[in-house]
């Protein structure tokens, strides 16, 4: 069988022929083309990324000189109709891999913004020896190379994705050094399913469509396990959205007989909020006493208008008040606060479902999301080191999976909670909290939200603070704030938790709950 692609040089040629012609036209021979571009690319990657830890980054010059490796440079391709240069390079790489299933195949992005219209999912190709392969992608660094969804193209599930693998999990794929923007068109920026032993290095995925479920997802739960991610290595992964950078607003609730009767604007904000996407939520330990939760909508004074692709004009300003849409009914209101968010909200920044025995370093969920990270059913036995959820949004780590170990997490200005824990087993060790007490009243380090008796072996050890505030709550349960004299819930172990509440007691006494 002969594999063909649509050739922008004219006519249909085999993939091998089309690639050879493009390389010869520019530099006279394929090898010289690879050496020149590879050397230039390696220098750019080194500059963009700095030091590369653990030797996980790919040396493009070395790859280009290895036998049995196919490299497709986006800069060698031209647009054809709605098919962008990236789309054409992917078309060639996908077809080449199908014809040469045992050849490691790479697409090398350009050092600039590259558009995609096709958004074709990455292929799953049987190698003939019981394993499966796919196309890998390398860029110049996440702050240099960007793959963006083209305006006017049909919305897709994700801008860059690898779908479920019914035949078997793809092994040894690599995605390194680029940003993926859904441009508020696709339902997600990135989605990787049905993979094992694959590496994700220096990636950023964001700008999902308004109301999206997530910016980036690894794995999903299905009856046949065809969406599982196993043994992945993830370094320096970011989720983001470029709309909504408001910060510093503080609304104090005014209560009357257990209902919300008004708000006092303590601070209208240090950075402007978007009129379309700002939201306010009543939070705090006393929420458990409410039979009806109060709701409100912030009022923003319009000052300036900005334009973003695929969104209506965005008007931004400072908070000048709030409209109460439901006064609510709460028997205790002493520890209820108003949390203000901004941005095109996705439910999850990073979503991990059915991902097992994997390792993640330096996760950075930013931008508007209900949960910065979510570890969902069947995500088990993962090691997460140095995660850094931050921004002025509510950032939570929702623990619905078992035996995941979080080490050296840095929670930077958490909104409502740092980590919301529901699973039976797991641990947080050496966490650090830092926050703006004026903007994040009622923030809690950990929320133990499972029903009584649900925990089996949860350990929270050596949790520290960078500052003190009477507004910060170390541990919150479904019944409210947990005092330092209270025992932990059954099945939970506390060791050296700093109270962070401005009192003279420095460390939470070491306590071990019934197992």
Describe, in short, the structure shown.
The protein has 515 residues and is mainly β.
Describe this structure in words.
The protein has 515 residues and is mainly beta. The longest helix is centred in the first third of the chain and has 20 residues, at 30-49. The chain contains 4 helices and 45 strands. The protein is globular, with a radius of gyration of 25 Å. Helix 1 (15-27) crosses helix 2 (30-49). It has an 18-stranded mixed β-sheet that branches. A 10-stranded mixed β-sheet has the order 10-13-16-28-31-33-36-39-41-42, with no helix packed on it.
Write the layout of secondary structure elements.
Blueprint: E1 4-6, E2 12-14, H1 15-27, H2 30-49, H3 60-65, E3 69-73, H4 85-99, E4 104-108, E5 113-116, E6 125-126, E7 132-133, E8 136-138, E9 146-149, E10 160-162, E11 170-171, E12 174-181, E13 190-192, E14 195-196, E15 199-206, E16 214-218, E17 229-230, E18 233-240, E19 247-256, E20 259-271, E21 273-274, E22 279-283, E23 290-292, E24 295-306, E25 314-326, E26 329-330, E27 337-341, E28 346-352, E29 355-356, E30 359-365, E31 369-375, E32 383-385, E33 397-399, E34 404-407, E35 410-412, E36 417-421, E37 425-429, E38 432-434, E39 444-448, E40 457-465, E41 473-477, E42 480-481, E43 492-498, E44 507-508, E45 511-512
Parallel strand pairs: 3-4, 4-8, 5-9, 8-12, 9-12, 10-13, 11-14, 12-15, 13-16, 14-17, 15-18, 16-28, 17-29, 18-30, 28-31, 30-32, 31-33, 32-34, 33-36, 34-37, 35-38, 36-39, 37-40, 38-40, 39-41, 40-43
Antiparallel strand pairs: 1-2, 6-7, 19-20, 21-25, 22-24, 22-27, 23-26, 24-25, 41-42, 43-44, 43-45
Helix pairs in contact: 1-2
């Amino acid at each position: 069988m002969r594999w063909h692609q649509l050739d922008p040089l004219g006519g249909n040629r085999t993939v091998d022929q089309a690639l050879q012609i493009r390389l010869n036209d520019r530099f006279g021979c394929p090898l010289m083309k690879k050496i020149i571009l590879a050397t230039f690319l390696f220098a750019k990657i080194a500059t963009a990324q700095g030091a590369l830890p653990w030797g996980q980054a790919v040396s493009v010059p070395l790859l280009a000189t290895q036998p049995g490796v196919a490299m497709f440079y986006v800069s060698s391709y031209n647009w054809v109709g709605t098919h962008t240069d990236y789309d054409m390079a992917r078309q060639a790489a996908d077809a080449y891999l199908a014809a040469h299933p045992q050849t490691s195949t790479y697409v090398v992005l350009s050092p600039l913004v590259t558009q995609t219209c096709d958004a074709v999912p990455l292929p799953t190709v049987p190698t003939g020896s019981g394993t499966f392969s796919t196309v890998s992608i390398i860029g110049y660094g996440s702050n240099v190379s960007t793959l963006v969804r083209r305006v006017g193209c049909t919305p897709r599930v994700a801008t860059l994705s690898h779908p479920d693998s019914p035949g078997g999990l793809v092994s040894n794929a690599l995605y390194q050094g680029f940003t993926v923007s859904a441009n508020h068109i696709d339902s997600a920026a990135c989605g990787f399913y049905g993979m094992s032993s694959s590496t994700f290095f220096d990636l950023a995925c964001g700008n999902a469509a308004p109301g999206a479920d997530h910016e980036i997802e690894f794995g999903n739960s299905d009856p046949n396990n065809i969406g599982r991610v196993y043994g992945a290595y993830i370094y320096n992964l970011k989720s983001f959205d470029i709309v909504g950078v408001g910060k510093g607003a503080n609304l104090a609730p005014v209560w009357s007989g257990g209902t919300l009767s008004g708000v006092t604007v303590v601070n209208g904000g240090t950075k402007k909020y978007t009129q379309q996407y700002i939201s306010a939520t009543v939070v705090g330990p006393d929420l458990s006493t409410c039979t009806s939760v109060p709701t409100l909508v912030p009022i923003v004074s319009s000052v300036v208008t900005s334009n973003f692709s695929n969104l209506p004009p965005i008007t931004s300003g400072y908070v000048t008040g709030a409209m109460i849409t439901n006064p609510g009914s709460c028997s205790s209101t002493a520890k209820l606060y108003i949390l203000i968010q901004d941005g095109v909200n996705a439910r999850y920044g990073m979503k991990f479902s059915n991902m097992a025995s994997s390792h993640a370093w330096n996760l950075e969920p930013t931008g508007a999301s209900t949960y910065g990270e979510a570890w969902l059913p069947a995500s088990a036995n993962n090691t997460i080191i140095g995660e850094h959820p931050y921004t002025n949004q509510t950032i939570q780590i929702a623990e619905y999976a078992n035996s995941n170990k979080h080490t050296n997490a840095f929670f930077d200005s958490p909104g409502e909670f740092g980590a919301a824990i529901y699973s039976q087993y797991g641990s947080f060790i050496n966490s650090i909290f830092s926050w703006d007490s004026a903007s994040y009243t009622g923030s809690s380090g950990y929320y133990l939200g499972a029903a009584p008796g649900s925990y089996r072996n949860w350990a929270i050890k050596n949790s520290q603070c960078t500052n003190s505030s009477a507004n910060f709550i170390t541990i919150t349960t479904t019944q409210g704030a947990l005092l330092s004299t209270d025992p932990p819930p059954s099945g939970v172990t506390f060791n050296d938790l700093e109270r962070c509440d401005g009192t003279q007691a420095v460390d939470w006494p070491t306590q071990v709950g019934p197992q």
